[in-house]
Batch of 3 targets.
Target 1
Amino acid sequence: MAKAAPRPEGKKTRKIPVPVICLLVLLVLLLAAFLVFYVHMKKQTRPDSVAERYVSTFVSGDSGALFDLIGFSPSPFITRDSFAKSMEECHSYSSIESYSMVQYPAESEDRRQFGIQYWDSHSNSPYSQTLILSRSEDRQYLLFDNWVADTTEYLARNCSLSIPAEASASIDGVALTEDMKAESTETAAIYQVGDLFIGTHNILVSLNGFEDFTAKVYLGSEDYADKTIYTITTSMMKLTKDTEKYLKQQTKSLIRSLYDTALAQKDFSALAAGFAFEEAARPAMEQAYDLLVANNISSAAHLTGVDFASFSSTTSPAYAEDHCYAVNVTSEIEYTAQSAVPQSSENGAEPGTTPRSTSGRSLFTTTFHFKDGIWSIYSTTALDTCIYYTRY
């Protein structure tokens, strides 16, 4: 019996694994998403789109969003709050209602310029602005242009402030720190604060013994690298009542001690031990003291004692050649002076002295200098002029 012919085997169908299918679908979706993202970003990063986004954000009244969009470099003085204050003062920001914009012919491939006019609710004439966009070297996502708005019109650049050497200061409530100090002398310190937003700024300077000094300064959109925005010297500051009281008391003690020391015929060093005398002026004061003792204490007709009845003092600013802060304390003194008057040797009388007493009033001026936080005595006319006493 013949064998039946073998049945042909059917071709096997090769199936694609499900994970591979999922991966392919995912790749297609990713490619589609990338294309959508690419098209969107190309549109968004065109300079005209950046300009439109800039203007619409400007008009929205959201200063925080505009701060982020422009891309300011934050600092202690460049903040959202300070930007909002500047925008309101200089641009009437919250009242802007509409705008118009034109694009000027391209100056170069890396620079675009737009003319913008804003209308607000308070004025019939528009506020004009020139928006300049520059292509940055840092690209977005490595693929797209990055157009950056010029910030010149918003900033007062390279600002510095000069204040007394021992003082502290703040601008708009932000304290100046030691790392901002760019230059320092015996009398002044210059602080480099960097950029500030345009508009009015409040300066406060504090110095021990003086009332706080406050000032307002308006800054425009310019470079202040070659000048300080404000210079405050100690001479512009006013003494506190406590400091005036201290200087008056120092003057009173000085004059009392001066005559106590002179009447005891002690050296100037005994007087200097109790007071701060300025070193540069000390030799002249010591010479004047020695002359006062020689002429009025060691002489034949001499002062023997002083009873001080009253002191009345006033303070006033004084000029100092070394530019430090100087104060004159003028003291009016009432006193009774005792003196030894030489006796006449006529008619065989023994030579000697006769005590005399007299009342008088003198006016002395004492000058104090303020350096390195210390008040020192620069001069006093009490060393040059002895109080009045009877000599004959």
Target 2
Amino acid sequence: MKKLLVVVAAVAGYAAVAAPVEFLGIEVGGTLNVLDAKVREREGLGAPTLVNLVIAKYSYYDCDSVKPRGGYDNFGVSVSTNNVVLSVSAWGVCPDEKTAAEKKEKILSEFRTKYADRIAPEGNFTIEVSADKDGASGKPFVDVVIYTAEFKATLDRNYKHGK
């Protein structure tokens, strides 16, 4: 019976790998070596910054984009110290609030359709899409973040206890 459970777990693990969530051409949960300058250049990313979550006792790298991609003004990735992509985020200015709200709904609909089986609580990914106005410029924007569910839980735990 134990052998059967191991095989089922291995198949389930393979299914998760075979069905990644991708955003802006980057697989969330896949691997990306952001310490390699050639990889960053290929992906349009700047130098990594090490982030230390003191309360959660977790460290990872953040990289911001150096140029727009996929219709977004900027994007970024968070990558574990062992090169696993923990999240991909993007931010784009919209001409007006109505367009931002419509874009938000369109993005949510596309992600829910494409990745329904992979979004938490059933799946291993968390998707957040919001439309708002920038406090400094007053310009409307859309913000998109796709996390591994585990990374999102780590961030939530860290910031919940950090208040």
Target 3
Amino acid sequence: MKKRSFKILSILMIVFLMGSLLTACGSKTRTIKSEGMKMSLSKEYRKASLANATWYYESPDGLAMGIKSSKDDIEKSGLETDSVQDYAEAYIKANNIPGNPKVKAKGNYYYFTYKRKVSGTEYAYLTCVYDNDDSIWLINFACYKELFKEYKSEFFASADSVEFAE
């Protein structure tokens, strides 16, 4: 009886170790790079294009996009911003973002969240704004509203991974 228990335990350990090795192999994220910015993004996203976006990726449940704006162009547009936080607040007003979202600081960026209905479907957004020398980057993550709690930590992990070339 003891021999059989040991054999079953050994088989279970081997199965567990193989499963651990298989799930540890390969990353679930990849690094995307664009115009001196890089960040980690889930492999489920595929590169696509969107007018006025510096880069744009889609997944079955959402999107991620980055918009790089030079500070000179922002100033020429008449938008008065003294900080990245001001830019985020001006962006909210200029785009009629519903719910009066609050801009918050996190690490090296500011962010806000909101919900919006587009063509009858409700989406939830995490928008992050970064200061990078002579430009401001706005990175937007979005998914179906009912999935936001599930994706929120993934969105923040990507936002936290943003780096700029020096």
